[in-house]
Write a structure and sequence with these properties.
Blueprint (H helix, E strand, L loop, with lengths): L10 H34 L2 H4 L14 H9 L2 H33 L4 H13 L6 H11 L6 H25 L2 H9 L4 H12 L1 H17 L2 H6 L8 H6 L11 H21 L1 H14 L1
Helix pairs in contact: 1-13, 3-13, 4-7, 4-10, 5-7, 7-10, 8-9, 10-14
Length: about 290
């Protein structure tokens, strides 16, 4: 009986696999970034290159007129400020309410906690768009139309279940010895949460906050319906309502410029907090 020796992978085959995986990764990244790159290039193209046939992929002539047109024809700075105010406020409120609620469900175990947790999970899976008609009736009854609260309250309510679920999983994994030591030192529940536990969950707070901020920044249906005054519109609504010189003209250049300006704050936010995001995702994956 003879034993056939197995061939071990050579060094060249390992290098080839690494090259293939690297090229595949680069191709995936380029595929994902292609729409962003296309909008960026279109925002700097002259109108002749935008309408040219065949398509001009890489322009040779550049212009800033599309960006200038955004701020001269429409109050785009106002749109940016409105989106920033609504997104930041709703994110802060969601974290301020969600963090204590998540700690209570994770550690204090209130009466009916499992039922509350099941309800939070069901609400998380419920599509927000199905709440539109009900919210519209509430906004009309409370006369909150053309008011920032008409967006802040729904955004906070929609994002609150996700915030509670994510932070609860982090609070569950913290060692209980910290809480016992804090109680021995005389800390009450609020002091222990504020001074000890929350600083340890900063990556989770940042990750959850960015998800909440992105949703509020990009939301369109509620902002379109609840805000009709020009000075209260957000970036998605303002960009969607950009018009050309006539009803037959589609302003591709200003639309691309509005897309770039609307995406840029999100990109900068993610880049600035990228370490915290990676820490939060890694810790969540390990703890999960």
């Amino acid at each position: 009986m003879t034993v056939i020796p197995q061939k071990r992978p050579t060094r060249e085959s390992k290098i080839n696999r690494k090259k293939i995986l690297r090229l595949l990764g680069i191709a995936v990244v380029l595929f994902c970034l292609a729409p962003v790159l296309w909008q960026l290039l279109t925002s700097f193209k002259v109108n002749e290159d935008i309408a040219a046939v065949p398509t001009v992929y890489v322009p040779t002539r550049y212009t800033f007129n599309h960006y200038i047109e955004l701020f001269t024809r429409r109050p785009f700075w106002r749109y940016i400020l409105n989106s920033a105010f609504v997104s930041i406020t709703s994110t802060a409120v969601a974290l301020a309410i969600g963090a204590p609620a998540a700690y209570a469900l994770a550690r204090l175990r209130p009466w009916g906690g499992k039922v509350i947790l099941a309800g939070v999970l069901i609400v998380t899976l419920f599509p927000g768009i199905l709440l539109f008609l009900g919210l519209l009736e509430i906004i009309q009854a409370l006369r909150l139309g053309n008011n920032y609260l008409a967006l802040i309250i729904p955004y906070t309510a929609i994002n609150l279940p996700l915030t509670i679920l994510v932070l609860r999983s982090f609070f569950q994994q913290l060692p209980k010895d910290l809480e016992d030591s804090a109680r021995v030192d005389g800390y009450n529940t609020f002091q222990m949460l504020w001074e000890i536990l929350l600083p340890m969950t900063i990556p989770a707070l940042v990750t959850t906050g960015i998800l909440t901020f992105i949703f509020a920044w990009n939301e369109f249906i509620f902002a379109l319906t609840f805000m009709t005054r020009e000075e209260l519109k957000t970036i998605p609504v303002g960009a969607a309502q950009l018009g050309g010189a006539s009803v037959f003209e589609i302003p591709y250049g200003p639309l691309a410029a509005a897309t770039v300006l609307g995406t840029l704050p999100l990109v900068l936010l993610v880049l600035f907090f990228q370490r915290k995001i990676v820490q939060g995702l890694t810790a969540g994956a390990v703890k999960g």
